[in-house]
Amino acid sequence: MIIKGTNKNKFTFTLSFVKLSKICEQTGYVYTEKPQLTSLPIDLGIDDHIWQQSILISDIEQVIEWFESLLLNKVVKEIILANDKQLQFELLENKPNYKKVKITHDSSISVPGMGAYSLAPGLKYEDVFKKISIESEMDRAELQRIVEELINEFNDSNRVIWK
Fold first, then answer.
1. Mean pLDDT over all residues of the chain?
2. Which domains does the chain have, with CATH numbers?
3. Exposed, middle or buried by CB within 10 Å (0-12, 13-18, 19+), for 143?
4. pTM assigned to the model
5. What is the pLDDT of residue 79?
């Protein structure tokens, strides 16, 4: 799913399939029953910056519910955080037929359990770990498109490919 920003920039939110046979091959894990998924692979992007991560299913559901509530003009939290607080959706303007949303990805926020990191020679922390945002203006048609694409992508991605 792509959300267009006000300055001709874009935010990309792409969920991927879980291929269990590949995971088993890489890890040596042998499954005896169908595992319950808690997260999905995701590609996040703002303009040319792309991050490959995993996102909790509960976070995906929260984002979908937030955009659905915006579409239906329900009361929403002004800010929601997802993906270990690295992904933020903020409602800047809320009119019945118009919304302005700021989407921020902050890779400088540490993720619990991810451990230490090392940088290649010559790189600085600020060059790798950044806070990047876009603002997007949305009418009802754009909100409808976003909700439908999020739901479709989630439903397609939430299937496990076993073989």
1. 82
2. 2-161 (2.30.31)
3. buried
4. 0.80
5. 95
Residue among 7, 9, 8, 34 nearest 20 (CA): 34
End-to-end CA distance of the chain: 27
CA-CA-CA-CA dihedral for 73, 75, 79, 81, to nearest 10: -90
Separation CA 132–CA 80 (nearest Å): 16
What is the rounded distance in angstroms from the CA atom of residue 151 to the CA atom of residue 51? Answer: 21
Residue 135's DSSP bridge partners are 102
What are 71-127's pLDDT values in tens digits?
999 999 999 998 888 899 999 999 999 999 999 988 877 776 665 666 778 877 777
Separate counts of helices (H) and strands (E) for the chain: 4, 10
H/E stretch holding 43: strand 39-46
Q: Across the chain, which distance is largest between two alpha carbons, in Å?
A: 53
* Residue 83, token pair as written in the block: 């993906």
* Cα 144 versus chain centre, distance: 18
Q: Which of 34, 80, 32 is nearest to 56 (CA)?
A: 80
Burial label, 116 (beta-carbon count in 10 A; 0-12, 13-18, 19+): exposed
% pLDDT > 90, the chain: 33
